[in-house]
Amino acid sequence: MFSPEGPTLRELAVQALSSVEHGYDLLAPKFDHTPFRTPAPVLDAVVSALRRTGPYGDGLDLCCGTGAGVDALATLCESSVTGVDFSAGMLDIARGRARPPQPRVSWVRADARALPFTDAFDLVVSFGAFGHFLPEELPGLFAQVHGALRPGGRFAFPVLAPPRPSSPAFWMLLGFDAVMRVRNAVWRPPFVMYYRAFRLGEVRRELERAGFRVDLYALPEFGTRGDGSPRVRMVEARRTDRGGLGQSTAGRVNV
């Protein structure tokens, strides 16, 4: 799973016994050589899906890590791109990458649950970060994104179909989550990383409650499962300013 340039087993163990923030500070120099980095095909597929409504003005990569999503956003946004993460180590690696002069790129260290932006972006994306948020934190997180977007702005992210109970991946993820729960019960500080806690139905409901109109789009690059359902979808949540539940359009859902 790891290239020779990636972290050793000992380094991963030290990371896992740290807080989320400090753990990623430690992992940052080798993060791009791990399977935790969002694969380029996923980034490319999301960019391709978003082109139909672009270009955009200002974009934000939420929980940007070492900046792979920022590079993807730069192909969609004409004015500026901002990467936000609470790991100083990850941001240091991101800043060190060579990039074209346009659009303007900036980096902000902040917690996604307390974003220092208001009506600042036309597009927010996030890749692979939601396992670090507990289900009860989703309403606050989505409210922060809603506030950071301009009216009509979009929040987009990919979601993989959950593995079937008959597949080895299902039991591997179940086992990982169980280990993390035991670890967090007996060790402090906690390291929040639960692969099975981010459920599409619940996510959609919370986005609507935060004031988003939610649509789902299949990413055809990844094909379909045996029952014909897509392996990977993109969630696209558009900011509305109505009170109460946002309105989703079932007719546009590509399932």
From TrEMBL:
Give a GO molecular function annotation for the protein: methyltransferase activity
In terms of InterPro entries, this protein maps to: Methyltransf_25, SAM-dependent_MTases_sf
Q: Which GO terms describe its biological process?
A: methylation
Q: Which organism is it from?
A: Streptomyces bobili
Protein name according to UniProt: Class I SAM-dependent methyltransferase
- Annotated Methyltransferase domain ranges read 60-153
Keywords associated with the record: Methyltransferase, S-adenosyl-L-methionine, Transferase
Gene3D superfamilies recorded for this chain?
Vaccinia Virus protein VP39
**Signal sequence bounds:** none
